[in-house]
Specification:
There is one protein chain. The protein is of the alpha/beta class. The protein has 2 domains: 4-235, P-loop containing nucleotide triphosphate hydrolases (Rossmann fold, 3-Layer(aba) Sandwich), CATH 3.40.50.300; 258-490, P-loop containing nucleotide triphosphate hydrolases (Rossmann fold, 3-Layer(aba) Sandwich), CATH 3.40.50. Helices cover 50% and strands 13% of the residues. The chain contains 20 helices and 10 strands. The strands form 2 sheets. Strands 2-3-1-4-5 form a 5-stranded parallel β-sheet, sandwiched between helices. Strands 7-8-6-9-10 form a 5-stranded parallel β-sheet, with helices on both faces. α1 packs parallel to α10 (215-235), α5 (108-118) runs antiparallel to α6 (123-142) and α12 (310-318) packs across α20.
Length: 491
């Protein structure tokens, strides 16, 4: 992939000056078209070998484009907060919103390649990491992000000359640490890098290799590549994602799902409830206060039928936790800021540090529940969400996050009784809305969606726990007990 980039490519000063003026004007035009229409975000990944001029290109783009609508991030070694979260967390929270251009100097590729070249990562691990990056980029592209991946390349001889010049600059030596580490293994390292670039160059996010020996040629090619990509996207009406002609979910003549196996008759007497709840709360407090817990994090998700008792269950959990180290996230309809990002963005930014707990009242499963049933997203979007969610949760668990997922189940009759009770109790009226009644009319549709969700996202690393919540006391004890069991197994 780098053979052509090692040929001689030059632009004289007169040509550069003429082309630069036209390019700057055109780039500003497409940038303000993007700002005005706000149909998508642009994410530019600046990558390449040492000495190729990545920082110079970043400075040039900040000169050519309007910086008010440009978000630039330079990623180096992870800091303490980043090390205590999954590797992709720092990239997710910095994704540009719709209507803007984001530039990442350093990216998920740098992390994987450095670990492989200078750390303990095997070839198999690198391939797994690259596959995860491809899935991430596919998801971003499906969510409308325009990905422009630029690899700045130099021949070995040109790189050595460039690095020698850089080293003479004040403080310049810090820019060539990676090159010194590669040293005599340059050819093997470049073979690994070229293979990584080849494997991750996809239709959704192809790599563009930029010859960088001549800075003028390099800068013009980068600018023209960005311009062409943005013009093409702005001029096109992106078709709706296609869906398979075959049935998207299995037909179930008897309409039975995993929820039908939940024994809703389970209950607990008042005296047993108090004793068992207090016992399991003490147990949970001890686990989350232990030194071993400082090496992991806990994510607890609550989904369930309306009025199934999620709020009351969450309160029983939080009573056992140190208030300095947990946070409850109540998920409602996405805000304007959240709608401007891929749908998982608003959940990624709430992932806790090690030693902390995040509790979600409603979750990312809204994509395959409410959004599916109510038609807030396309069939293609909720279909692909199953694998995207599984990938998201695996990234969490691979990084030491314990993911515990609860579905609270009640019968349709019990839901009606609770709805009526809420309407007739002054301090509970805020808990019932017109939307709750509308959702109840689609009980069977939601039951099918829940069944598919449990089947498709119940994994060994993040299994579902189905909780009989007809009796709230039984549900609360079961939830706290399950949390203790999952933590004890992890610790």
């Amino acid at each position: 992939m780098f053979a052509s980039a090692e040929q001689t490519h030059k632009v004289d000063k007169t040509t550069f000056k003429t082309e630069e003026a036209k390019l700057r004007e055109a780039l500003l035009d497409v940038q303000f078209d993007l700002v005005g229409k706000k149909p998508f975000a642009v994410l530019i990944l600046l990558a390449g070998i040492d000495g190729a001029g990545k920082s110079e290109v970043l400075a040039r783009l900040n000169e050519w484009l309007d910086p008010r609508h440009l978000h630039t991030m330079a990623f180096d070694a992870r800091d303490e907060a980043e090390r205590e979260r999954p590797p992709l967390w720092r990239y997710w929270i910095n994704l540009p919103p719709k209507g803007t251009i984001g530039i990442f100097l350093g990216s998920w590729y740098r992390d994987a390649l450095e670990e492989h070249l200078f750390g303990d990562s095997s070839s198999d691990r690198l391939e797994r990491d690259l596959a995860a990056m491809t899935r991430l980029e596919t998801m971003l592209a499906d969510e409308g992000v325009l990905l422009i991946k630029l690899w700045l390349h130099l021949s070995r001889a040109e790189q050595e000359k460039r690095l020698a010049d850089i080293k003479k600059l004040p403080g310049g030596g810090r820019h060539i640490i990676e090159y010194r580490r590669i040293g005599k293994h340059y050819q093997q390292a470049m073979a690994a890098i070229e293979n990584a670039v080849r494997l991750t160059s996809t239709g959704e996010a192809p790599w563009v290799v930029v010859p960088s020996a001549d800075p003028a040629y390099r800068d013009l090619m980068v600018g023209q590549t960005i311009l062409a990509a943005m013009q093409k996207r702005l001029a096109s009406d992106r078709p709706a994602p296609t869906v398979p002609a075959a049935p998207v979910v299995g037909a179930k003549p008897d309409r039975k799902t995993a929820l039908d196996a939940v024994d809703l008759t389970l209950s607990l007497g008042g005296a047993d409830y108090k004793e068992k709840l207090a016992s399991h709360q003490r147990r949970l407090a001890g686990l989350t206060d232990s030194k071993r817990f400082r090496d992991i994090a806990l994510v607890v998700t609550f989904e369930g039928h309306d009025a199934a008792g999620k709020g009351g269950s969450i309160r029983r959990v939080t009573r056992a936790l140190d208030p300095r180290r947990f946070k409850v996230h109540s998920i409602a309809a996405p805000s304007h800021e959240e709608r401007a990002h891929p749908y998982l963005w608003r959940f990624w930014r709430h992932i806790p540090r090690k030693g902390n707990v995040a509790i979600f009242d409603r979750t990312w499963y809204g994509r395959v529940l409410v959004e599916r049933v109510e038609g807030f997203c396309s069939e293609a979007e909720w279909l692909r969400a199953y694998s995207e969610i599984n990938d998201f949760e695996q990234q969490l668990t691979d990084s030491g996050v314990i993911v515990v997922k609860f579905w609270l189940a009640i019968s349709k009759d019990e839901q009606l009784r609770r709805f009526q009770e809420r309407e007739n109790t002054p301090y509970k009226r805020h808990k019932i809305t017109d939307e709750d009644w509308r959702n109840r009319e689609k009980w069977d549709d939601y039951a099918s969606a829940v069944g598919d969700m449990i089947d498709r996202t119940g994994t060994d690393y993040a299994p579902w726990t189905l909780v009989a919540s007809e009796d709230k006391r039984h549900a609360r004890v079961m939830i706290v007990k399950t949390l203790c069991e999952r933590l004890e197994a992890a610790l």
